[in-house]
Structure formats: C-alpha cells, structure tokens
Design goal:
Elements lengths: L6 E4 L1 H5 L2 H8 L10 E4 L3 E2 L12 E5 L6 H8 L3 E7 L2 E3 L3 H9 L12 H4 L6 H6 L9 E6 L2 E6 L6 E3 L5 H16 L4 E5 L16 H16 L3 E4 L5 H8 L4 E4 L2 H11 L3 H9 L4 E3 L7 E2 L18 H14 L3 H4 L12 E2 L3 H4 L4 H13 L3 E5 H4 L6 H7 L12 H7 L3 H15 L6 E7 L4 E8 L2 E8 L4 E8 L2 E5 L11
Parallel strand pairs: 1-2, 1-16, 2-5, 5-10, 10-11, 11-12, 12-13, 13-16
Antiparallel strand pairs: 3-4, 6-9, 7-8, 14-15, 17-18, 18-19, 19-20, 20-21
Helix pairs in contact: 2-3, 10-11, 10-15, 15-19
C-alpha cells in the first residue's frame, strides 16, 4: 500500500536532468525527508515527443537519455514511485500504427486503432458526433492514409495521439506489457492517464460510460494482482468524481485547487466546506500538476445541463479573472485559444502566481491541502514556488509549458534557499512524519467568521489547522508524544516536530 506521505510530481529531465539525478536530489539536503514518494512523469521512449512524453513510441521502455528500468527500481527503493500508463492512445510514430498505415487490413494491428467507421459501422449522424465529449474544440478525427486510402482516425487529444481499441487483442497485449514492465521495476502505483476517454460506445458521450467503469475495474484487478495500486485521472463533474472514487483505489481531488483559490481569494469557504462533506476520502490531493488548474471540476455538468457545479458560473468567471490579475496577465497568454493545445477547461498558470506570488497565502493553501484527507502530491514547480515561465511559453507556443520549467542544478540550489520554499519543505516533513494523519478527521466551517478548522486525532495525539479566510491568517497546533506545539506564522515559524 502506498504510504500516507507527501509525494513529489516531477519530470526527471526538467528538475534533475535524468532519473538517477532525481534520485540523488531527493536524497540530498535540504530535500531528504521532504517527499516520501515521487510521481515520475513520462520517461518512456521518447520523453520529448509531441506531448511531453504522453505520446511514447515505446511505452514499455525507458528513454535511454533518462535512464533504465534499474534507475526506476533504485528510485523505488527509497520510497513510493508512481508512473503513468497511457491507456487511451499511442503515438502516430509508434511501430504498430506505422505498420497499419502501410499494410492496412493485412497488418497484425488492423483493428487496434479506432476509426470513425469502426465505432460507427452504420455511419454517424450529426447528433452522434456532437454527443461525443472531447476536451478540445472540433471533432475527434484526423485523416490518415491507410494502405493508400484516406481514413478518419480517432484522435481525442492531438493528431499525433492515436486512440486504440482497448478490447483488441493487440491492444491488450500492449497494455499488459506496459503493466508488466512497470510492476517488475517496483512501482507502487500507476496513474491511468486519460482513461475516461478509453471506451467509445456509439450513442453515448464516449466518456466515463458504464463500459469505461468496467474497463477500469478489469485493469485495476490486473494491477492489484501484481501489487500495484491504481490512480484514475479524470477531469469531470464533481459528482462523477465521487462515483469514480467508489470504484477505484485512488482518484484525484481536482476540485480542491480551484476551491482553495476561491476561498482565499474571496474569503468565502462555503463551496469548499460543501465539497469537504461529500468528496471521496481515497483521494490524491493536488494544487498543481503538469496540466492546468481545472475549471470543469467545479463547474456545472456539461453532460447533463441543469446540474449545478460547486461554483456558480459567475464565481468561476471571477476565479479565472483573479488568476489573470494575480499573474499579471500572463495566464491569459497560455490559456484557451491563445495556447496551441487549446485548454478550454483549464487555466494554465503556476499555483504560486495564481495566488499573486503571496508567500503567506501559498503556504496556507498548502496547509489546507495537507490537512485534507488523502495522499498529498506537490508538483515540482510548486515545490519551488515557481513563477510563470513566459520565456518557455514563447519558445514552444504550448500553453502548459508556462508551468513546466526546466531548472538547472544551480537554479534549484538557489530556489531552495528562498524562505517560502524552506517553509514548504518543513510543512511537508511535518505532514509526512506526524502519524495522526492516519487517524480520525473532523472538519468545521464557521460561515459567519469565515474560519476553516481541520483536525486529525489518533491515540491521544492530534493536529489542527485553523484558517481565517478573511485576513489570510492560519495557525497550526499539535500534540505528539506528550509534547505540544503551535505556530501562527507558517512562513517565519513553520511547524516542526522537535
């Protein structure tokens, strides 16, 4: 079972050069003891394709520029390691897709790749096509020449990412080979990337249908048999996240990041308090990831109009506008139609900039995250309280790159000297070390005073977080092994078990 400690999310090459470098970094000062585990973002061959590793040509091999499976195994020897299994698609440059394009029906991979005709053999109406949910504008097909004939190939995300039929024997062999390689290296958890889109059922939205749940259940059973837990990655309506949580090992709490921003930005903790009452407890909590800050996760149900979200449309509009203001307008450069990946359901911005680069507010946001039930993860840019990387965005034109900086070793060394980073590292150690976070959780919200109170208790020990949203102040108090402590300043005096 994955340990209940703070984990890091990182591209190995963008933080420490390669996988062995990431291992050395986590074992060096001041990083030692900060993160109990690490989610290593795609390191497969190649790690630098069209979508930063999420379109590998060989998903079962480690890109030799980053290391080997032994490198992953060594990293797993120091703590939990999570890796991605990209179940929805393969690269257009993969050997299997290239072979099918060249040989058509005579290829052993014929039927492995989804086309408009394979999903809609009787043809598709306008209603059929518009019912399909896609996190991008336009339809889900890209024309490719297959054995000399033009075919409409299903591409949910980009033209370079080809959707597969996960029920096809070759696709099953492909996914099994990835799971075998990952589990053999000692990985603790796999993240099923884009799994919500993996099953295409005519006449439906082709997103998180009953067939999708069945696929997730079957894949989870395979993973568990190999000693690997499964985390499901789905951005969707909050009620759907609750449903997913009841069917899997772990689910992301993607509603938390925008709700915390709303609470700290407006002084209104009501939406966050309502979410705390119903959210799945078996969550991985995040404030930032390699993707943007989700909006769809707190909005109304796009698949069933009339079902309200955790935030109203006007509250979401103000949230997006506040991120624009706080980031000095840089988030606008990387979001929506301004970005090549057209993220219409996310705002691309570092979490630190989304809070106006306010050290105090940032640490309060992290304290809230760490006290919310679940396994907390901190993205590498967030671990260094990073700012929007406008220069990288200008070079690539990829909106998400504003939050995907490359750090040199000298830059990392300089960043960890900043007080806000040192305080965050101390808060991570506190969260990972204190055993009460495996105990009983209680939550209260005083609407009149606008104060959040989160408390954990176990075997006579306890830890409590009190946050005054109106004045952005917080106190952490605790009792451990008969010794009590308290801090009212997370930046100058972060909680420490002495």
């Amino acid at each position: 079972m994955v340990s209940n400690e703070v984990q890091l999310i990182a591209y190995a090459d963008r933080l420490a050069g390669d996988i062995d470098g990431l291992h050395r970094l986590l074992e060096s000062e001041p990083w030692r003891g900060v993160f109990g585990g690490v989610h290593v973002l795609p390191f497969f061959t190649p790690f630098d394709g069209a979508d930063a590793g999420f379109d590998p040509t060989d998903h079962a091999s480690v890109d030799p520029r980053l290391g080997t499976w032994k490198s992953i195994g060594a990293l797993a020897g120091r703590g939990d390691v999570m890796v991605d299994i990209i179940v929805n698609h393969v690269s257009a440059r993969s050997a299997s897709f290239v072979d099918w394009c060249a040989r058509g029906d005579s290829s052993r991979y014929a039927g492995m790749f989804l086309t408009m005709a394979s999903v809609f053999p009787e043809g598709a109406t306008e209603r059929d096509l518009t019912a399909v949910y896609r996190p991008r504008p336009g339809v889900s097909f890209t024309p490719y020449r297959v054995a000399g004939k033009q075919r409409l190939v299903w591409t949910t995300f980009t033209p370079q990412q080809i959707d597969i039929d996960v029920s096809h024997p070759e696709a099953q062999r492909y996914l099994d080979a990835i799971l075998d390689a990952v589990s053999a290296s000692g990985v603790s958890m796999v993240r099923l990337d884009a799994v919500g889109y993996a099953i295409k059922t005519p006449g439906t939205s082709c997103f998180m249908t009953a067939d999708t749940y069945a696929f997730i259940s079957a894949f989870t059973a395979k993973a568990r048999a190999k000693g690997v837990e499964v985390l499901v990655e789905v951005h969707s309506y909050f009620a759907r996240q609750i449903e997913i949580g009841s069917a899997v090992d772990r689910v992301y709490d993607f509603a938390l990041p925008p709700l915390v921003l709303h609470a700290l930005g407006t002084g209104d903790g009501g939406p966050l308090a309502r979410w705390m009452k119903v959210r799945p407890a078996n969550a991985v909590t995040v404030l930032d990831t390699h993707d943007g800050i989700g909006v769809i996760d707190v909005g109304a149900d796009q698949a069933a109009p009339g079902r309200p979200g955790l935030l109203t449309p006007s509250q979401i509009d103000e949230l997006v506008e506040s991120i624009r203001r706080n980031s000095g307008g840089t988030s606008v450069l990387a979001t929506g139609a301004a970005a090549s990946n057209l993220d219409l359901y996310q705002v691309n911005c570092t979490y630190f900039d989304a809070l106006g680069a306010d050290d105090n507010a940032y640490l309060i946001a992290r304290a809230i995250q760490f006290f919310v039930p679940g396994i907390p993860q901190v993205y590498y840019v967030g671990a260094l309280a990073g700012r929007n990387d406008v220069e990288l965005l200008a070079r690539t034109g990829v909106g998400r790159d504003i939050n995907r900086s490359y750090y040199t070793s000298d830059e990392v060394a300089a960043e960890v000297e900043r007080p806000v980073v040192a305080a965050l590292f101390a808060l991570c150690r506190f969260r990972s070390t204190l055993p009460v976070f495996d105990g009983v959780f209680t939550f209260a919200y005083d609407e009149q005073a606008s104060v959040l109170t989160m408390r954990w208790g176990a075997d006579g020990s306890w830890a409590q977080l009190d946050v005054s949203l109106r004045d952005r102040s917080a106190a952490v108090s605790w009792s451990h092994e008969g010794v009590e402590g308290r801090t009212d300043d997370l930046l100058a005096d972060p909680p420490t078990l002495r």
